[in-house]
Design a protein that fits this description.
Belongs to the PGI/PMI family. This protein is of the alpha/beta class. The protein has 2 domains: about 190 residues, Rossmann fold; about 150 residues, 3-Layer(aba) Sandwich (Rossmann fold), CATH 3.40.50. About 45% of the residues lie in helices and about 10% in strands. The strands form 2 sheets. A 5-stranded parallel β-sheet has the order 2-1-3-4-5, with helices on both faces. Strands 7-6-8-9 form a 4-stranded parallel β-sheet, sandwiched between helices. Strand 4, helix 6 and strand 5 form a beta-alpha-beta unit. Helix 8 packs parallel to helix 15.
């Protein structure tokens, strides 16, 4: 018996899906396009272009935890490796020691009250940094921005913070545009919203598993420990997002990385006990034939997920192909997801949307309530 009980039929049963998803996370994932359009309006109303006064900053520090931290990674991925200003994401209380008046700090918190983000935002004001705040209206983070006379972009809650990615990210992208660091225009944002709508249509709950790409991948990954490798900085950020959502939605552990470094650091996994478990017992064929396996649980196996960027480096393409062959030779299942589109934001959006649907469907397929991890553990005083 497998340690994870998978019920493929649940994914095609509308009533079962609704009962297993009490927080309606599938609806939250489907709100991505609306988040893009709404955030664009809120950002314009907030006058975010004010942060460009005084010229281009020396560096940008994005402060945020959970889904808010991913907004920083999304910004860096879209601006690209050639960005003229370094972009750093901080997920703790402290700003880098070098951050000062020449730098821009963007404090992001979906609920607007995350302790780490508030502490860093106050520190940014104390150091004289330029500051942009993004979070819930009427929150402590909004108060900090008002008191400091800095721009604040309100974000409407669309479920748990991890489901608010686009509402949190678009203000950062438009701020970068105001600074001349990216070409995310209104037209690009609308095309991106269209991509998100297309994925939502393909992956909608009413679409049956045999034609629904997210349900198919969820069932392929169920019961395994995914090793998720991106093939560029953009898809490397998506790999991190995937691993985090699998943990939060489906309580599923995963390993993530970016090729080519991930190959050197993690390829040994496929020759280890979890990799061997994918292909059999590790004994001889004769021993395996005569072993009574009725009462033996199936070992936990690995799966390899390759997030293929159409603009990856040619040498990385070769490494990706070798990695897929290497895994298949060891009977490790391989799933490949490919970006589509011309603009980096469109490519990233399609991939992230697919990933978010997969993680929720995986939770539902294995009987995990994806809303169970929404509430963060209460802090304990020492």
């Amino acid at each position: 018996m497998s340690p994870v009980e998978v019920d493929p039929g649940r994914l095609d049963d509308a009533e079962a899906l609704a009962a297993a998803d009490p927080a309606d996370l599938l609806r939250c994932v489907a709100s991505a396009a609306a988040q893009v359009r709404e955030a664009r309006l809120y950002t314009a109303e907030a006058g975010v272009e004010r942060i460009a006064q005084g010229g281009r900053p020396r560096a940008i520090v994005v402060v945020g935890t959970s889904g808010s931290g991913f907004a920083g990674e999304m910004l860096a991925a879209v601006c690209g490796e050639g960005c003229r200003v370094p972009i750093t994401t901080v997920r703790g209380h402290r700003l880098p020691g070098w951050a000062g008046a020449a730098d821009l700090v963007i404090a992001v918190s979906g609920p607007g009250g995350t302790e780490e983000t508030l502490t860093a935002a106050v520190e940014a004001v104390r150091r004289g940094c330029r500051l942009l705040c993004v979070g819930a209206a009427g929150s402590p983070l909004a108060d900090i921005a008002v008191q400091a006379g800095m721009p604040f972009v309100p974000v409407r809650a669309a479920g748990p913070e991890r489901a608010m990615l686009w509402g949190l990210t678009v203000p950062l992208l438009l701020a970068a545009r105001a600074l001349g660091l990216t070409d995310v225009t209104a037209e690009v944002l609308e095309r991106t919203a269209g991509v998100l709508e297309d994925v939502s249509h393909q992956c909608r709950p009413a679409s049956e598993s045999f034609v629904n790409p997210a349900k198919q991948v969820a069932l392929e990954l169920a019961g395994s420990v995914p090793v998720i490798w991106g093939t560029s900085p953009m898809t490397g950020a998506a790999a991190h997002r995937f691993a985090s959502r699998l943990a939060a939605d489906a309580a599923c552990p995963a390993v993530h990385g970016e090729l080519p470094a991930a190959w050197h650091d993690q390829a040994a996994l496929f020759d280890g006990p979890f990799g061997a478990g994918s292909g059999g017992s590790g004994g001889s064929a004769e021993e395996d034939f005569f072993r009574d396996r009725v009462d033996e649980p199936e070992p936990t196996r690995l799966s390899l997920v390759l997030l293929h960027d159409v603009e990856e480096h040619p040498q990385v393409t070769r490494r990706r192909e070798i990695a897929a062959e290497f895994a298949r030779d060891r009977a490790v299942p391989v799933v490949e997801l490919t970006t589509r589109g011309t603009h980096p934001l469109e490519r990233l959006a399609g991939l992230i949307a697919h990933i978010d649907y997969i993680s929720v469907y995986l939770a539902l397929a294995v009987g995990v309530d994806p809303s169970a991890t929404i509430r963060e553990p209460e802090e304990r005083t020492p």
